[in-house]
Design goal:
448 residues, binds NADPH dihydro-nicotinamide-adenine-dinucleotide phosphate, alpha/beta, 12 strands
């Protein structure tokens, strides 16, 4: 599939010229525009009002210096970002990523995706993303704290509980959210829900930690059931071993599957008996160790260097949960040759466009990230509701809401794809369903 609409060809060309050297952002825009061709044809009013031009341009890009002092007393300088992309349907919402690969193009692609994802949840949240090119790996907790305090000193000028509410992403978990929240409170003398993913004893929500991984499995389960299938007895391959991967593993196992792989940026493990999840949690969440340590405790399992090899392992269901473009065309072909029946994305944009085309043309059920991993932000929005009402909901209440939201996302994506003549294409369905709500709100609010 490629863009054929003349107007979209010109628009994509303009996006490329205005955002040179940002391939991830262009990739994300191209995928969305491809899906929206039938929408532009049916809704000339969107074209006339410049909605498509407007939605690919961030409302605000904030870029700042983050100076901090390491444990040796040496000054370190990093670069921080917050891109507030679209606030048509609610205050900006989206995670913060701390990883050395972060630059403007990565944050822009993530912020753009976030608009549609947040809309799909049915909750009133706009799209944003932020982060820094800081690498938490190998840093002491005090170094991480000093970095977070410096980052928040600048970021605090641009966020607020009714303006912009960041959360975690790669490299930003409970520890970092705690340090960021502490600094915001100190600077503003306000105890408000300005971040989500907080600890349970200071305003966090039950299920937020598990939400993205659980939500991914709830969506996958809805998709499988719609095709008279289930997780029961299936072999599942997961990449990554962070927050999303761990809780996807937990829920897939609860739903009857056997998860046999996980990875980090150095390599991957295969345990044909099914992964020992308590050990993985201890290694990754508590001790912050590398995944290869798993085989010290389970010598019958295998460790292989190089993370991309994880897709050579035969499985029924693949859940990429590490990072963008981690699953390419060759990996997709290998998965297909090995009989994969479903691929659902836990990470943001983990499959390349060529890989997605392979899955779709070979009848593999494919769930795209902006639908499948929306459970994290949905639960963050539930945390915001609890904070503003100064209440805490029970685990069962939040989990039920999360499951309902993920099932609705699946249902709404199916219906949108069908309505616009692309039945069964969940990529198009998610893009269209997410876009329509935002576009109508933008139309209603005038040219702003
Ligand atoms: P974590 O930091 O908890 O874990 C990230 C995992 O991915 C680690 O195992 C990490 O390995 C691996 N990884 C990161 N970068 C690379 C890379 N360049 N190559 C190979 N492996 C890599 O992050 P999360 O689990 O929170 O996030 C994972 C994905 O899910 C991201 O795409 C994120 O945007 C997305 N996501 C997360 C949400 C959340 O609620 N946390 C919500 C929605 C989407 P290593 O330790 O070696 O770096």
């Amino acid at each position: 599939m490629s863009i054929t609409n003349e107007y979209f060809i010109r628009l994509l060309d303009r996006v490329k010229k205005r955002n040179p050297h940002e391939p991830e952002f262009i990739q994300a825009v191209e995928e969305v525009l491809e899906s929206l061709e039938p929408v532009a044809e049916r809704h000339p009013e969107y074209v006339k009002r410049g909605i498509f031009e407007s939605i690919v341009e961030p409302e605000r890009i904030i870029k700042f210096k983050v100076p901090w002092v390491d444990d040796n007393g040496v000054v370190q300088i990093n670069r921080g970002y917050r891109i507030q992309f679209n606030s048509a349907i609610g205050p900006y919402k989206g995670g913060l990523r701390f990883h050395p690969s972060v630059y403007e193009g990565i944050i822009k692609f993530l912020g753009f995706e976030q608009i549609f994802k947040n809309s799909l949840t049915g909750l009133p949240i706009g799209g944003a993303k932020g982060g820094a090119d800081f690498d938490p790996k190998g840093k002491s907790s005090l170094e991480v704290m000093r970095f977070c305090q410096s980052f928040m000193t600048e970021l605090s000028k641009h966020i607020g509980p009714d303006t912009d509410v960041p959360a975690g992403d790669i490299g930003v978990g409970a520890r970092e959210i705690g340090y960021l929240f502490g600094q915001y409170k100190r600077l503003r003398t306000e105890y408000v829900g300005v971040l989500t993913g907080k600890g349970l004893n200071y305003g966090g929500s039950l299920v937020r930690t598990e939400a993205t991984g659980y939500g991914l499995c709830y969506y996958t389960d809805a998709m499988l059931r719609d095709h008279n299938e289930s997780f029961e007895g299936k072999i599942v391959s997961i990449s990554g071993s962070g927050n999303v991967a761990i809780y996807a593993c937990q829920k897939a196992t609860e739903l009857g599957a056997k998860v046999i792989t996980m990875s980090d940026s150095n390599g991957y493990i295969v345990d044909k008996n099914g992964l020992d999840l308590p050990l993985i949690k201890q290694l990754k969440e508590v001790e912050r160790k590398r995944i290869k340590e798993y085989v010290i405790h389970h010598p019958e399992a295998e460790y292989h260097e190089g993370c991309s090899g994880v897709w050579t392992v035969k499985c029924d269901i693949a859940l990429p949960c590490a990072t963008q473009n981690e699953l390419d065309e060759d990996a997709a072909k290998t998965l297909i040759a090995n009989g994969v029946m479903a691929v659902c994305e836990g990470a943001n944009m983990p499959s390349t466009p060529e890989a997605i085309a392979q899955f779709q043309s070979h009848g593999v059920l494919f769930g795209p990230a902006k639908a499948t991993n929306a459970g994290g932000v949905a639960t963050s929005a539930l945390e915001m509701s609890q904070n503003s009402g100064r209440r805490s909901w029970t685990y069962e209440d939040v989990d039920r809401e999360l499951k309902d939201i993920m099932e609705n996302i699946y249902k709404n994506s199916c219906e949108a794809a069908k309505e616009y003549g692309m039945e069964g294409n969940l990529v198009a369905g998610a893009n269209i369903a997410g876009f329509l709500k935002v576009a109508d709100a933008m139309m209603a609010q005038g040219i702003v």
